[in-house]
Hints:
By secondary structure, the protein is an all-alpha fold. Helix content is 73%, strand content 0%. The chain is built from four helices and no strands. Helix 1 crosses helix 3 and helix 2 crosses helix 3.
Amino acid sequence: MKNRMIIVLRDFMGxxxxxxxxxxxxxxxxxxxxxxxxxxxxxxxxxxxxxxxFTDYVK
Length: 59
C-alpha cells in the first residue's frame, strides 16, 4: 500500500518530494528511497513474463 500511495503522489499527482514528505510525515530521503523502491517493484511486475517487450524501454 505504501508503494502505491507514493507512486500516485509523485507520478500521478505530481507532488514534489517535499510535499510528499509533509503529507506522509516522513523525511525527504525516505520518500526518495521509497519512490525508487516502488518504481523498481512496479517495473518488475510490468516486465514479469514479458521481458522481451520491455527491457529495451524500461531501465
